[in-house]
Here is the input.
Amino acid sequence: MKAKKSMMKRVKKGSTELTAARKVEAADFLPLEGGPARKLPITENSENKSTVLYIGRIPHGFYENEMEAFFKQFGEIRRIRIARNRKTGKSKHFGFVQFASPEVAKIVAETMHNYLLFEHLLQVQIIPPERVHPKLWKGVNRFYKPLDWVRIERKRHNKERTFEEHKKLVDGILKRDQKRRRKIEAAGIEYECPEIVGSDVPAPKKIKFED
Here is the structure.
């Protein structure tokens, strides 16, 4: 009976020591000032969930359709956007691609970074979800049509002007012509500049009506 009680005490003591050892092994942080050990909270890497890639140094001619055809070999693509000039519509040589899977995005970032494409080294980086701007994909499905500046300038040049506007236009032309003449004369070049036709604009006549 005494042997059985002593055996039970040793089993309980051994199980207590084993449980304490497991707790110490499971703990990640031991305070220097003493006290019980505790486990640090698990922090997940945000890059493992990111599906958006930044792509820099995009060569000329490698636009949305070409990028989609090239990158879809890795996996499903959700959205593509290339930064463009608002005035001309030309590419700014950087853009963003969103994949359906974060694993595919990671593989693309590792594979295509510093990839030589049309004499350009592509710069590919994963963007963490918290750094993705909420307006990044605004208007991504709209086709950007640049303004026809030739038509706008033609319309501005040919518009009807008042007498004061026309006089101001002619004065500016004459002022630039005089400046050009002085430069030619200062250079020692003997050249007779032709007169500008239509520079003498008669003032509109004021007609008085009798009562």
Remarks:
- The longest strand covers residues 91-99.
